[in-house]
Design a protein that fits this description.
The complex is a heterodimer of chains A (418) and B (154). Chain A has three domains: 180 residues, no CATH class; 82 residues, no CATH class; 115 residues, no CATH class. Chain A has 13 helices and 14 strands. The longest helix of chain A is centred in the C-terminal third of the chain and has 17 residues. Chain B is an alpha+beta fold. Chain B has a single domain, classed as Roll (Pnp Oxidase, Chain A). In chain B, a hairpin with a 2-residue loop joins strand 3 and strand 4. The radius of gyration of chain B is 20 Å and the shape is elongated. The chains are: A alpha/beta (418), B alpha+beta (154).
């Protein structure tokens, strides 16, 4: 067992007192992602399979290794989405969800904190395409986002790939999904088109289409196959819209300028995100060896900036898996040093039109770094504040990746009120 | 607590102004015809995600601050309702029911959030009521010429 990363000893209440301007709802979300959540039997009994969305289709696995059939996630009173996974009681001191007096209540160490609400399931979820594929396996969803994963296999994990990212369990999760819920590795564009058509029948349900996949470096030029496939899928989605463009986000590898231009010109895509994962070249090489081998850190950044020329400002982003930059022995020795380095590079990117968002790193058992612990609550609060302040400083908006269209970034949650 | 006044939120003859406060402390008043009273709650349908009111409502919920609704009626009658935002519906079946209602009433129109507020206090601010109150409670607050025994007629 590796030693835990440095963690400040401040409790939630102490962090809240120290940062009174930081919204409690978003702080709670951070801590829920950090520590995880445990559903009591009574909370699980409140799940109505006909009404509530249950988990299983997400691209990444769970903390306890169990795929189905529990609440996908929940929502707080202010509309903040919580995308955490069930966590064993003995592991990581998780928050508790219980059913008390007919309401779902979030508890910490026996203290009732607030009411929470399970996500409603979309109408298309249990339907099948004409080819017999369950539509929820074609497009999962968040409350207002269609979440399409055309290819769930990441070739960085293959023999020539150079190595998958240290925090990632995509391939192990796929193996489990294929065995337990017949999840297809690769989607047929016809299934995607039919599923989107069905989803759009539900009024007021979705505000964005989101695509992401495992990386695929194959092709005439590296990643041409990934690009060709995205274009095929995006065109299939576009068949269902009356407009040329539709609110959408593609989360993909850092592609070449020509490839990005093809995505922009040939499809209805309106934004692009290329997750650099770690904002430090040395750590990027360690944590993301496949990305380092096929593209490289400086080239990754240059390609994101290139994308701004094509998609325009406020339409290009990158994500970081915050917390892995502190993992010993290679990580930053202190949270202060990590913040200075990460925010410094995020500031440079923002000055060139690229917005950075952070995900709270959830160490999953199926990933190489899964035995480590993530960072302190105070670190994540300061990071979220810092990233939002950088966007404001540079006049960048994050509409395509905000609290509602995504919900997985505490920093962009802040954009709705700060 | 003034339920008959809160019911006036549902009357089309009422002018309803929702006042929130921005991050600099500046009040932001805006006419909001979608305000309504239902089941003991004040409901506000927000059509624009980026509106100043929506941001102000978010901040009110985040920082546990109340908002004010000014309800103006024909004939100089007006009321102030203090309310506390308790929930923002931004998705789910309940939100979708409101969304469909908006589309029925306004055609191709969007809905960003349904704000649910708990009314805390209702004050009648109509001029006649306030004059009577002030006269009764603050007899010093008046000009003496109004009390003069011998008044010059214009």
């Amino acid at each position: 067992m590796t030693a835990a990363v440095r963690r400040s000893t401040l409790s939630f209440g102490e962090v809240a007192a120290k940062y009174p301007e930081f919204p409690r709802f978003v702080m709670l979300k951070i801590d829920l992602h950090r520590r995880g959540v445990y559903y009591t039997e009574r909370a699980l009994a409140a799940v109505d399979p006909a009404r509530h969305q249950t988990g299983g289709t997400h691209i990444f696995g769970t903390r306890d290794g169990q795929l189905t059939y529990r609440p996908e996630a929940f929502i707080l009173r202010d509309g903040t989405l919580v995308l955490t996974t069930p966590t064993p009681l003995e592991n990581n001191d998780p928050y508790i969800v219980d059913q008390i007096g007919g309401k779902l209540i979030l508890l910490d160490k026996g203290q009732e904190l607030d009411e929470i609400f399970y996500w409603d399931k979309p109408d298309y979820y249990d339907k099948k395409t004409s080819r017999g594929v369950l539509m929820q396996n074609v497009a999962g969803c968040r409350p207002q986002r269609l979440y399409i994963t055309p290819n769930r296999f990441c070739h960085f994990w293959s023999e020539k790939g150079g190595g998958g990212c240290g925090f990632c369990d995509i391939v192990n999760n796929l193996k489990q999904q294929r065995a337990e819920i017949r999840m297809p590795t690769r989607l047929d564009p016809r299934d995607v088109s039919e599923t989107v058509r069905e989803a759009l029948k539900e009024k007021g349900r979705f505000t964005a289409v989101f695509l992401t996949s495992g990386s695929d470096f194959r092709g005439k030029k590296p990643f041409d196959r990934e690009v060709d496939y995205y274009i095929e899928i995006l065109k299939a989605i576009g068949e269902n819209f009356a407009t040329e463009k539709f609110p959408s986000q593609l989360l993909c590898t850092a592609l070449s300028k020509d490839q990005i231009r093809r995505l922009h010109d040939e499809t209805g895509l309106t934004s692009i995100t290329m997750d650099i994962e770690v904002l430090n070249e040395r750590l990027f090489d360690i944590v993301c060896p496949g990305k380092a081998k096929w593209i490289g850190y400086q080239e990754w950044k240059r390609r994101m900036i290139d994308a701004v020329d094509i998609f325009g400002p406020n339409r290009v982003g990158t994500g970081i898996v915050s917390g892995v930059e502190l993992v010993p022995p290679f990580g930053f020795p202190s949270e202060d040093e990590a913040l200075t380095a990460v925010l410094g590079e995020a500031d440079e990117l923002a000055a060139q039109g690229v917005g950075t968002v952070n995900m709270i790193w959830v160490p999953r058992s199926g990933s190489p770094l899964g035995r480590h612990k993530n960072a302190s609550l105070e670190y994540y609060v300061r990071l979220a504040q810092g990233l939002q302040a950088i966007r404001r400083k540079h006049g960048l908006e994050i509409d395509f990746d905000d609290y509602r269209r995504c919900g997985n970034h505490p920093d962009s949650d802040l954009a709705r009120g700060l | 607590m003034g339920n008959e006044i809160l019911e006036l939120l549902n009357d089309e003859a009422s002018v309803k102004i929702l006042v929130t406060v921005d991050e600099h402390g500046l009040p932001h008043p805006a006419v909001k015809s979608s305000l309504r009273y239902c089941g003991g709650e004040v409901i506000y349908l927000e059509y624009l995600e980026s509106s100043r009111t929506n941001r102000g409502m978010t901040r009110s919920l985040w920082y546990e601050k109340d908002v004010v609704i000014l309800l103006a009626r024909p004939g100089e009658k007006s009321f102030v309702i203090v309310a506390h935002p308790v929930r923002a519906l931004v998705c789910g079946k309940e939100f979708q029911r409101y969304y469909e209602e908006v589309q029925r009433e306004r055609g191709d129109f969007d809905l960003a959030a349904v704000w649910i507020m708990k009314p805390l206090a209702v004050t009648d601010q109509s001029l006649d009521v306030r004059v009577a109150e002030e006269t009764a409670r603050h007899p010093h607050f008046m000009h003496l010429d109004r009390l003069a025994k011998y008044k010059e007629t214009p």
